[in-house]
Amino acid sequence: MKGKSFKDFVEFVYSIRGFEDFFDFMDGITSDKDKENLPKRVEIVKKLLSGENHHMIAEDLGVGVATVTKGSKLVAKDYFKVLKEPEMPKPKPEASKSGYFGKYGGRYVPEMLQGELEKLARTYDSLKNSRAFLAELEDLQKHYNNRPTPLTYAKNLSEHVGGARIYLKNEGMNHTGAHKINHCLGQALVAKKMGKKRLIAETGAGQHGVATATVAAKLGFACTIYMGQVDIDRQRPNVVLMELLGAEVIPIKYGSKTLKDAVSGAIRDWLATSDDTHYVIGSCLGPDPYPRMNRDFQSVISREIRHQLGSSPDAIVACVGGGSNALGAFHGFLNDKNVRLVGVEAGGKSNKSGQHAARFPGAELGIMEGYKSYFLQDKDGNSAATHSVAAGLDYIGIGPELAELADTGRVEFVRASDKQALAAVELLAKKEGIIPALESAHAVSEGIKLAKDMKQDKKIVINISGRGDKDLFTLAKHFARDDFKKFLNQELKTYE
Amino acid sequence: MKNIMTHVVAGYPSADECIELMLGMQKLGVGIIEVQIPFSDPIADGETIMKANDIALGGGMTTAASFELIQKANLDCDVYLMSYIQKVRHYGFEKFCDRTSTCGAKGLIIPDLPYDSPEYTELVKRTQGLNLRLIPVLSPGMEEKRLNTILEESPLYVYVTSQRGITGNSYNNTRELHQLVAYIKHRSSAQIMIGFGISSRHDVEEALRIGDIAIVGSAIIREVEKSGVKTGLKLVKNLGS
Fold first, then answer.
1. Measured between CB atoms, which of A109, A111, A382 is closest to B146?
2. Which of A60-70 are b and which e, b meaning 16 or more Cβ less than 10 Å from the residue's Cβ?
3. For residue A491, with 0-12 CB atoms within 10 Å meaning exposed, 13-18 middle and 19 or more buried, which class applies?
């Protein structure tokens, strides 16, 4: 019965998009008897899942007890996972009611915002287990955002390295090109339920800004993006995209003019506008409930990895700026002690202060931007200067949950330099036909090193948090400097 | 002038000029001076004060030097220190409070420190023996439950921001400000300081119609930025009747 034709049939049914087409198809393909029986079978399963007595179910629905018992066997074999009440993963460490992971986290913001954060936390807590909310999110993830993203066996790269089997979780295949949209979609739906009309966000590389502007356009929000002038200068194409998507991009011209100043700008806006505005924080950081909310939205990455691989890998490697893609990839495996979890930070140009953005070792406990965690600081507790070739990793802090996971040792942290990241971009492009974002290339660089020392029957997953299209200008500067200069000059002439 | 609190950033525009500014304010009869210890990420401040923070830090101002600066100014009027919890925590709670006391300040204003955090408990513990006061910062739109909890502590002063948002916008006695002030008066005997956006004698009078003390910050710094300490002091002079 379960031959190739059945699989083809299911694949065909799965490919139908849009409710109306699907309805017409189902209407046509089913007999009257089917139309009566199929919904009844679903009812039986639902009642079985909620633990009702077989005889009661049979009586209620007017079917034989044997039918119910047959159903219960299939339930036991887990055929009907999709009908189960969704379970939220229970990770360690979980933010307690107060919003701390160990000693990290909290809500260090003026009283003005305390009520708003409490409201957001309450709304999110009530939505996160709601079937309707999760279904709406999943629908957007699937039909708008292209999920699930592929997990690709990197055969050429694995053979080249000669160690473990390397798999690439390609978050670059998300709509807008990076994992950031996962938490943007989630937050925008929460904001919608709260009756907000406007989304604001900070952005470093511009990826989170583009993702927020995209979601705002799709779901009908007004949108303002804060971005440091230095980041605007090195990621101008993303500014063009954000404005095209209808967002207003406000440059920050004070401080270091990078991500941390953009965060300050967005917080200032929110202090004044929280009544009708939701602040879409772009990583698993900021005041509670953002770190846990964004983690939940990003943990779709680890759920898919487990499902696609059919088992746990031996190691997962991800780059860490604030930590959203890393936490998303690690989260579902925190309790699998055999899975090594490795975060790769921005080693920049050198280990000297101001030349990198790696928090471990060296960062101190601090309270900035509304949360307590590790921050790169100067001698007097001010934020230190940072550098990375990857704008998305060029940040002083790290999300509170990762800070706690660093303390417990569950997540290991290493760093990759600008140079290593650039080399990794080239290697992955040549070997696998995938151009990773410079951020993700940090993970590739370290992943290869790890794979080399692992046996060939081991599996390592590298999270490719985004694709490299956005880095064209940086890449051209390094890989095709003279030709690109000619091109730019030529292009410039067309503007005259 | 006694019912005006002016705001300066330690080390802005320079250490010496900052002292000159504070002494000038005292001479004009200002009741209280709020001295901000500069910080790189002052999330509750507007662009003017933020820039002043950057300039002070650029001039090498540190937490330790801020205390020394206040001590050197040797003021007779009341001084309150304002900064962010990161600066307090980094310097050390005990040392920070000791220095606050020995430099002659009466207490602290820490806008990003919620009362339900471990740092608040720590800070309260350290201030008690030294008789330092913590001035809570309250805003229109804040949660009533939290407001009640704060007022139950019977603070001597409360710092009320005239509006939601950050320092530096224009001043208005809005309906929600009226309501908040009326609520505080009904529930406590705290002296009410009103700040954010007060930049002229007219604004001061408006603020004092409902509150006890008017706070002027960004407006003075804008004048100093434009044409120096003397111009800043001229603005202060024009605030009083």
1. A111
2. eeebeeebbee
3. exposed
A229 & A182 share domain: yes
Query: Model confidence over B69-99: pLDDT tens digits?
Result: 999 999 999 999 999 999 999 999 999 999 9
**Which residue intervals of chain B are DSSP H helices?**
15-27, 47-58, 63-73, 85-91, 93-102, 118-128, 144-151, 175-187, 201-210, 218-227, 229-239
pLDDT in tens, A92-129: 455 556 689 999 999 999 999 999 999 999 999 999 99
Among B16, B17, B20, B34, the active-site one is B34
Counted domains in chain B:
1
Residue A90 covered by a domain: no
Closest CA to A380 of B84, B34, B80: B84
Does one domain contain both A217 and A248? yes
pLDDT of residue B167: 62
Contact across the interface for B113 and A98, Cβ inside 8 Å: no
Give me the residues of A, 101-120, that contact B with CB < 8 A: 103, 106-112, 114-115, 118
* Contact indicator for B33, B5 with CB cutoff of 8 Å: yes
CA dihedral B116, B122, B123, B124 (to 10 degrees): 80
Q: Which residue of A has its CA nearest to B40?
A: A382
Contact A110 B111 (CB under 8 A): yes
Q: What is the pLDDT of residue A408?
A: 96
Angle formed at CA A259 by CA A258 and CA A263, multiple of 5 degrees: 125
Rounded average pLDDT over B32-59? 94
- A440 in active site: no
Please tell me which residue in A264, A417, A445, A465 is annotated as part of the active site: A465
Q: What is the pLDDT of residues A418-476, one digit of tens each?
A: 999 999 999 999 999 999 999 999 999 999 999 999 999 999 999 999 999 989 999 99
Q: Are B107 and B81 in contact (CB under 8 A)?
A: yes
The total number of structural domains that make up chain A: 3
Q: Of A274, A293, A312, which marks where a domain is finished?
A: A293
A-B CB pairs within 8 A amount to: 114
Q: Which regions in chain A score pLDDT beneath 70? A: 1-2, 85-98
Domain end call among A293, A308, A329:
A293
CATH of the domain at A202: 3.40.50.1100
How is residue A159 written in tokens? 């053979």
Is A257 near chain B, with CB under 8 Å? no
Name the residue of chain A whose CA is nearest to B114's CA: A108
| Domain range for A256 | 111-145+177-293
Do A112 and B54 make contact, defined as CB atoms within 8 angstroms?
Answer: no
* Residue A209 covered by a domain: yes
* B173 within a domain of the structure (yes/no): no
Tell me whether A273 touches chain B (CB under 8 Å). Answer: yes
Write down the pLDDT at residue A90. Answer: 45
Reported pTM: 0.85
- State the nearest Cα–Cα gap between B143 and chain A, in angstroms: 5
Which of A250-259, A458-467, B14-23, B199-208 shows the lowest mean pLDDT across its residues?
Answer: A250-259
The CATH number linked to B31 is 3.20.20.70
CB A101 within 8 A of CB A95: yes
pLDDT tens digits, one per residue of B122-177: 999 999 989 999 999 999 989 999 999 999 999 999 999 998 876 656 788 888 99
Residue closest to A172 by CA, chosen among A436, A470, A473, A438: A436
Q: Which domain holds residue B110?
A: 4-134+199-239
Query: For residue A91, what pLDDT is reported?
Result: 44
Q: Is B233 a residue whose pLDDT tops 50? A: yes
Over residues B106-128, the mean pLDDT reads 96
Question: Is A88 part of any domain?
Answer: no
